[in-house]
Amino acid sequence: MTTAIQDDLRLLVRDVLREVLPTAIKKKAAQVSPLENAEVPPVGRELMTINSDADLNTFVQRIAQLCQDPIQREALADGTTQFQLAQISARPALVESKKVIRIEKGAVTEKQVKQASEQGATLLLTKTAVLTPLGRDRAKALGVEVEREK
């Protein structure tokens, strides 16, 4: 019988708190800092450069790291902490010249594709060169570009 009374009492206290607390919190906030006198906290900006999947992954990890701290998570949510893309130079970026291995004739094997991958090269095949099925599979797996000469 005492548990029934305790449960009823708990429910009654919860109901009262639900009604009273939101009003009391709003009144306290209005007394402490009226909206017109409120100071806007400075916005923290983090410069980010996103040019690749790795940069994007780093950015997401940074957000996850900030979200672990409740204060920093709140700063992200209310816009106090912001991210800004770093300005990219107006100069055209230097294009990296990729090594090209030209194969004149014969079969292009798995071994040759692996060597091209290690060198970071593209395979350029003439009309008389043939890419073996295993070589083609290895090229796909290693991300080696294979081009046909026209």
How would the blueprint of this fold be written?
Blueprint: H1 2-32, E1 44-48, H2 53-68, H3 70-78, E2 81-85, E3 100-108, H4 110-119, E4 122-131, H5 133-142, E5 146-148
Parallel strand pairs: 1-2, 3-4, 4-5
Helix pairs in contact: 4-5
Describe the structure.
Strands 3-4-5 form a 3-stranded parallel beta sheet, with helices on one face. It starts with a helix and ends with a strand. It has 3 domains: 1-34; 41-89, no CATH class; 101-148, no CATH class. It contains 5 helices and 5 strands; from the N terminus they run αβααββαβαβ. Helices cover 51% and strands 21% of the residues. The chain has 150 residues and is an alpha/beta fold.
- Major sheet: order of its strands? 3-4-5
Number of helices, where a helix is a run of at least 4 consecutive DSSP H or I residues? 5
Question: What's the oligomerization state?
Answer: single chain
Please give the domain count.
Answer: 3
- Backbone CA Rg: 32 Å
Tertiary shape: elongated
Produce a short descriptive summary.
With 150 residues, the protein is an alpha/beta fold.
Output the keywords:
150 residues; alpha/beta; 5 helices; 5 strands; 51% helix
